[in-house]
Structure formats: C-alpha cells, structure tokens
Amino acid sequence: MAERISIPPAEVSSSPAALVGFLFTPTGSGLHPAVVMMHGCGGAYDSQGMIGARHRMWGEYLASQGYTALLLDSFTSRDIKEICTIKFGNRTLKEADRVGDAYAALAWLRQQNDVDAKHINLLGWSHGAGVTLDAIGRQPIMGDGFNAAIAFYPGCTSRNKRADQFHTYAPLLLLIGEADDWTPAAPCQALADKVARRGETMEIVLYPDSYHDFDNPGIKTKRVRKEVPNGVHPGEGVTVAPNEKAREDAKLRVIAFLASHLK
C-alpha cells in the first residue's frame, strides 16, 4: 500500500504548490536505495482516480526488490488532468518544466533517514521519460544529481537532432518498442549510438513487436488512441498495446541496471 505524501516544490520546481507523491516502502531495516518515478502525459491515476496500474506495479515491484519508490504527481498541484490529447505546441507544461519536480523529490528523499542518499535514481515513462532525459542530459540542478536513470519510450526526435548537445551526467538506460508509433524507436537508437560513441554511458533495449505502453498491465488489448493528436502520423492516432514478455524482461533489466550502479 502506497503512502500519500506532500513534497515542498522548493526553488528548483515550477510547481505553484506542494507536489503530491506516493511512497512505496521496502521491508527491512537500514538504508535503501531509491527511485523517483515520473508519470507520462496521462498523469499518475486511472479513470477511477486510483494510482495507475503501471505505476502501482512498478512501485510495488521496486519495493519488493529493496528500493524505496516515490511516484511523483506533477499534475495535481498545477490543476492538470492530462495532456495526451493536447498538441505539443499547445501544451502549457513541457518536459523541461518538470525537471525541477524530479529534483524536489530527490531533495525530499535525501532527507529521509531510511534512504541511501548516494543511490537515488530516476525513472520515467513517455512524457516522464522525456523529463528523465532532460534531467540527465544537463548538469545537475543541485548537489550530485541522480545516481542512474531509466527512460521508457521517450520522445527522442528533437534530441537526436541536437545529439552534440546531449551529454549524460549519469548512466542512462532506454527501453522502447520497435513498433512504437507515438514516440518512435529509431531516433532513440540513433541518439544512443552517438552518445555511446562519445564514451558516455547510455544503453538502449528495443523490443520487437512492441508498442507504446508495452509494460502497462492495465492495458489488456491493442488499440489505437484516435484522441491523441501527436505521434508518427499526426491526426491518425497512436497505438498502445501490452506485451507481457517484454514487460517481464524490462523488470529484470531495470533491477540489473540499478544493481550494477549501486557500488
């Protein structure tokens, strides 16, 4: 069961009020590494107002593996429900605007007596994955920044065009479906190749026959979201579909990646 918490936005966040968060706590005493989780354009909740199935699954899974997981809600304090159905150019909240939220959560976690302050990681999905790339692709806003970062199906097109300006300060792992027509995989692969050639730590995993939201257990069947105006084919909708095999592989890869950077 996740504990609802309130996180002061501090000076680094553009939020006008305290941020809502949900804390998934591991069992056992001592210091635990942590993960800040950034939701996508649909927000942190499902249609019933409960924590979304994907976020709940990952929060519980990370906690079962010994990590304190903090799901951060960037929307409620800004009176936003969702931004998936808004064209990119018309959105009032950009990925870069949420970077400060991630650092506010980082600062809050570092103040907790049961969190290993040296091993706090960042994980995001879609819009939240873009936040993750923005956060890791520039110098830390405060302190030493995040220990490592994971991005599920981020948008990489514009970043790949400016790859010479994208430098990761922490190890970064991208996971994306090859068939994704919302945030396509090819620009992410190209970006990862360029970054890796510079000797920076950026890995990518492409899942065949997988679409956007492949890890979301709340999605039962493949469908086209016609209400989403963005994507590879603007105006034609985007595809979301579950892939249990890819999801289970991603869970193992995430834990292995985080564990490899605990030293």
Task: Give the topology.
Blueprint: E1 3-7, E2 19-24, E3 32-38, H1 53-64, E4 68-73, H2 99-110, E5 115-125, H3 127-136, E6 149-152, H4 157-161, E7 172-177, H5 185-197, E8 202-207, E9 223-225, E10 238-240, H6 244-260
Parallel strand pairs: 3-4, 3-5, 5-6, 6-7, 7-8
Antiparallel strand pairs: 1-2, 2-4, 9-10
Structure write-up:
By secondary structure, the protein is α/β, with parallel strands linked by helices. The protein has one domain: Rossmann fold, CATH 3.40.50.1820. The chain contains 6 helices and 10 strands; from the N terminus they run E-E-E-H-E-H-E-H-E-H-E-H-E-E-E-H. The strands form 2 sheets. Strands 1-2-4-3-5-6-7-8 form an 8-stranded mixed beta sheet, with helices on both faces. Helix 1 links the parallel strand 3 and strand 4. The radius of gyration is 17 Å and the shape is globular. The chain starts with a strand and ends with a helix.
Tell me the CATH superfamily: Alpha/Beta hydrolase fold, catalytic domain
Which whole number gives the mean pLDDT? 95
Order of helical and strand elements: EEEHEHEHEHEHEEEH
Distance between termini?
A: 29 Å
Radius of gyration equals 17 Å
Q: Main β-sheet, in a few words?
A: 8 strands, mixed
Low-confidence segments: none
Proportion of strand residues: 15-25%
